[in-house]
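subagent[fold] <- orchestrator: predict structure for attached chain, return tokens only, no commentary.
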Amino acid sequence: MDLGIKGKKAVVCAASKGLGKGSALALAREGVDLVINSRTEETLEATADEIRKETGANVVAVACDITTPEGRAAVLEAAGDVDILVNNAGGPPPGNFRDWTPEDWHKALNANMITPIELIKATVDGMIDRKFGRVVNITSAAVKSPIPILGLSNGARTGLTGFIAGLSRETVAHNVTINGLLPGPFDTDRLRGNLKLQAEKAGKSYDEFAASQAAVNPAGRFGNADEFGAFCAFMCSAHAGFMTGQNIVLDGGAYRGTL
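subagent[fold] -> orchestrator:
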């Protein structure tokens, strides 16, 4: 299927690896020009080179902290007119809410709520003027099924989701959609790091523990970045203009709710 977005310009955040990289690569395969960012310049440049070599796409890499005004300004300057925005950021650390300070909450809210909103604010009116725009917020399945030790993430990402529920109904008449893509257990550095800690606490080897956790999922496995990216690219496509304000769980069936 031709997704109808060849020649569009996209910003993909936290795209040096994992789900952000998968999303950037999928868009590049569709002929989209990219601006990608992450904090680690060496890893980001390697990813940009990899995407260019495979797809021939125009890829600009901006190493920065997207959660700062300076970082956002650098990315937006490099991008120009943005047609597609994929918001993505690593989640805050797990823990017990009794241990979290206001500073911990401010960091979580800034990274996982305020930063996406600021990027949307900077790009959405241009999208409206051009009568095309796609915003995908990569959040977490925990938005629909909260995980107690991830309270910082639960709170910040759900706040973003609530905000988008209103805004997305205002923009869709202009062919500008805003949706959430909620990953469950995907084989990423973050998942592997969490599994390693859990395996150590359980007194098991990493491989044994990881295999047991994958087997619990109805799909019998963890997801991979390529399939996540392909789904993200469809949500950014010309064919997805009638879907807005939705939160799509991509988790192999782990979320057991009806709605």
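orchestrator: received. Logging for downstream: The chain is about 50% helix and 15% strand. The beta strands are 9-12, 33-38, 59-63, 84-87, 133-138, 176-183, 247-250.
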